């Protein structure tokens, strides 16, 4: 578990892309507003990808990082990608 509601299910790498597959274990898709969820989370994730040493390696190597979220029933409800171009020079 990454926190009390988010589980990292898997990660995969392919074609200059790294993808995290995550589950929100506490809610169903019907209880979530995918647009609002993404609006709130994406800026935070962009900041983390661009500034945390463990993920800055992706940016430096031109790798996009995709986050795919599923609900507690396994239904995908949002996906977004952080592109290296979204990071200021770091």
Topology:
Layout: E1 6-14, E2 17-24, H1 34-51, H2 53-60, E3 64-70, E4 76-82
Parallel strand pairs: 2-3
Antiparallel strand pairs: 1-2, 3-4
Helix pairs in contact: 1-2
Task: Characterise the protein shown here.
This protein is α+β, with helices and mostly antiparallel strands and 90 residues long. It has a single domain, classed as GMP Synthetase, Chain A, domain 3, CATH 3.30.300. Helices cover 29% and strands 34% of the residues. It is built from 2 helices and 4 strands; from the N terminus they run E-E-H-H-E-E. It has helices at residues 34-51, 53-60; strands at 6-14, 17-24, 64-70, 76-82. Strands 1-2-3-4 form a 4-stranded mixed beta sheet, with helices on one face. Strand 3 (64-70) and strand 4 (76-82) form a beta hairpin.
Unreliable spans are none
Q: Fraction of residues in helices?
A: 25-40%
Instruction: Write down the CATH class.
Output: Alpha Beta
Give, in order, the helices and strands: EEHHEE
Number of strands: 4
**What is the CA–CA distance across the termini?**
29 Å
Number of helices: 2
């Amino acid at each position: 578990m990454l926190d009390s509601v988010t589980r990292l299910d898997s990660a995969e790498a392919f074609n200059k892309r790294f993808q995290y597959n995550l589950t929100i274990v506490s809610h169903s898709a019907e209880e979530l507003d995918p647009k609002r969820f993404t609006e709130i989370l994406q800026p935070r994730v962009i900041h983390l990808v661009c500034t945390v040493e463990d993920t800055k390696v992706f940016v430096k190597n031109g790798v996009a990082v995709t986050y795919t979220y599923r609900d507690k029933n396994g239904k995908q409800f949002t996906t977004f990608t952080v592109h290296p171009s979204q990071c200021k020079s770091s």
